[in-house]
Amino acid sequence: MVGEATSASHDEVISGVLDALEGVSSEDATGCFLASLTSRRLDLRSALSSYVLARRLEPHAFAKGPGHISGACAVCGVDEQEVEIDWDVMNFERFKWGGVRRDDLTYVWLDLRQFAAADHPPPTSADRATFGQLLDELDDPSPTTTAAKTAGQRWSAIPSNKAEREVLLDILGVCSVLESPEHRGFLDRWVPAADRVLPPLRYVERAYPVCWWRGEHGVNRSAARSLGLL
Known about the structure:
By secondary structure, the protein is mostly helical. 43% of the residues lie in helices and 5% in strands. Helix 1 (10-21) runs parallel beside helix 5 (105-117), helix 2 (26-39) crosses helix 6 (125-138) and helix 3 (47-56) packs across helix 5 (105-117). The radius of gyration is 17 Å and the shape is globular.
């Protein structure tokens, strides 16, 4: 997969994601996410959100979506024919930031396959304590707090730069830890691509659904516990 640019049909991408999912356990995805917070192994971080996405995905036929997703599949957002998929670029993004194409199923396919072949360091009690501290920092009741503003602030819980914080917030959004009542993550059900609308802003900085999150929405600790993060 890595090392060459390829094309794939919609059905091939869906089958690829579901096949790759079989090689990844919830325990490994959760454990490596936690371990990455202190080790800064960003290549292991995004498997958690990729796993959460993939396990809610079901086989389906291509259904052309509305204009706001440029005619891609209304269910999953994949084009009928994905042309020149650059696996090397996506793998670079995976190591550099923890991936940046959060709900792009071509990235999810790559991420799960590469994760399955990687080492899986177990999380320590310090890793879990770090995640708990991070949630405490994010649990800000101010209605003016947004994901974009939060990413721009230095966090005491984990070593990170702004780009890493942005990706981490996107991951927590997909995992339903950071979500709004109207725009929820993927922990309990699949969110069709056609329903992943973005805020009516000139520039939306973060991925769906954390782009809708505000401090007043709080932190979904129940979702974190469901994933074994707490």
